[in-house]
């Protein structure tokens, strides 16, 4: 095994499933879809995701990697949620992904292994009600807690057809679980508390392919298609059914406006409606198709050192696939900014992205979140 392959395998084996990001919008379906993008792409609203070798979207983006590189992310979040029942503010931390890539020596190929979040379904809900028991009104307190989500494990191969054209293919393993804890307590001590605990486990596979093509000196186009198969669902190791996963299609353009300014835009479409029938059969609300639009820029103060303290800005808007109520529409809008520092002669890097996100669905369901993402990159 070559040094490149040994480094890739060792680092990805250290990556566990992505921890969850708490949100009221992760209650339905499979939770909130997560974007497998780097800190740089996140700071540009996701617009650079198709072109960025440290993102897990387009396997063609790794074709131009010249060195073995490892990157790791951590996210700190602050959220304020509003529902018809009240408001709440929480703070959480997660580790959305790790990616290792490098060239295969003596060939026009590059390899990348990554672990990132696919969906997040981590939440805690509490409610209070009154029931008529034995002719008397009894107050009850219900709590529903979920920990978990789905992770996307990817092995990607990139091919440099030429300096202008690159191709890529990837295989995906989608796995994860939700640990559900449901509890009921009674205001009358004559009644004992009740609890139910179970685990939902998931397993599926997928494949993706992508291309990047440079037109002239200023314009680069990119496209990606990904097909995920059925997700096998088990409840406490017993078969619970299957859930069809969506087809993802994405395309974008990147333009070098000047020596210092790079802009990009992209769109992502997923036909999540294919999961609607399966989710309803499993007792859920269902799902709808989603569209995501991104735009962003990167300004480089020193063109001779483009990775030194760049200024990144971005915006995106996306519909969410799992409505809180049947027939409702849920959406997410975000703005972002970020930069980067390089150390040790460019062998180590620190990227950051600060995002402000607004989510809404139906009447009275809103959420505001601030996310600080830090990324550490190492080139051995």
Explain how this protein is built.
The protein has helices at residues 3-13, 39-43, 276-281; strands at residues 32-33, 69-83, 86-94, 97-103, 109-120, 123-133, 136-160, 165-186, 194-215, 219-228, 230-235, 238-244, 247-256, 261-270, 290-299, 311-320, 330-343, 348-361, 365-378. It has 380 residues and is mainly beta. Strands 2-4-5-7-8-9-10-13-14-15-16-17-18-19 form a 14-stranded antiparallel β-barrel. Strand 6 and strand 7 form a beta hairpin. The longest helix has 11 residues, at 3-13. The protein is elongated and about 80 Å long. The relative contact order is 0.18. Residues 1-21 have low confidence and may be disordered.
Would you spell out the secondary-structure blueprint of this structure?
Layout: H1 3-13, E1 32-33, H2 39-43, E2 69-83, E3 86-94, E4 97-103, E5 109-120, E6 123-133, E7 136-160, E8 165-186, E9 194-215, E10 219-228, E11 230-235, E12 238-244, E13 247-256, E14 261-270, H3 276-281, E15 290-299, E16 311-320, E17 330-343, E18 348-361, E19 365-378
Antiparallel strand pairs: 1-5, 2-3, 2-4, 2-19, 4-5, 5-7, 6-7, 7-8, 8-9, 9-10, 9-11, 10-13, 11-12, 13-14, 14-15, 15-16, 16-17, 17-18, 18-19
